[in-house]
Specification:
It is built from 5 helices and 7 strands, in the order βαβαβαβββαβα. The protein is of the alpha/beta class.
Length: 171
């Protein structure tokens, strides 16, 4: 059982860098669907991801079709589209079913393509929010919420629930 964050045409390097850090902390794969709005050598991207890039499994795809072709070849792959337009709340989905979960997020400005979402409406998940006050939540915050809900349901596999540091502030 592996979790995957998939970014469709991400545009803001700091968001992708923060998501890469979350991926490193959670043993989550990161999939990037091009075109990207930045270079992966971008200094802002590296700064946001700090020195965690070598701990992240990253795959690149030239377009959405190429990613979907890859996904079809994967065993127990379950695709979830994360969108404010979804009717199902993310916490109601079952992520502890032994499958490999791919959480697809749209680009920061326009989200996922409407036709693709309509074709996959049953796979769409929403994080509840007050839509009267904001248009959307930050991409990196949203990715973290989704992957940690999946990990919570899965019992936080291969993660340290506690850790003792040499200069632990609670000792």
């Amino acid at each position: 059982m592996v979790n995957h964050i998939v970014l469709f045409e991400p545009q803001i390097p700091a968001n992708t860098g923060n998501i890469a850090r979350t991926c490193a902390a959670t043993n989550t794969w990161l999939h990037l669907i091009e075109p990207l709005g930045f270079s992966t050598d971008d200094k802002h991207l590296k700064r946001a991801g700090l020195d965690y890039w070598n701990a992240v499994n990253i795959a690149y795809y030239p377009d959405l079709a190429a990613f979907l072709t890859y996904l079809e070849s994967q065993e127990k792959a379950q695709l979830h589209l994360i969108s404010k337009f979804a009717n199902q709340v993310y916490s109601e989905a079952n992520f502890a079913d032994g499958g490999n979960h791919y959480f697809l997020f749209g680009k920061e400005t326009t989200g996922l393509p409407e036709a693709f979402m309509r074709e996959n409406a049953e796979k769409c998940l929403r994080i509840p929010m007050n839509d009267e006050h904001v248009r959307s939540l930050n991409l990196s915050n949203t990715a973290a919420m989704i992957v940690y809900e999946a990990l919570r349901q899965q019992g936080f596999p291969n993660m340290e629930l506690t850790h003792h540091y040499e200069h632990d502030k609670l000792d």
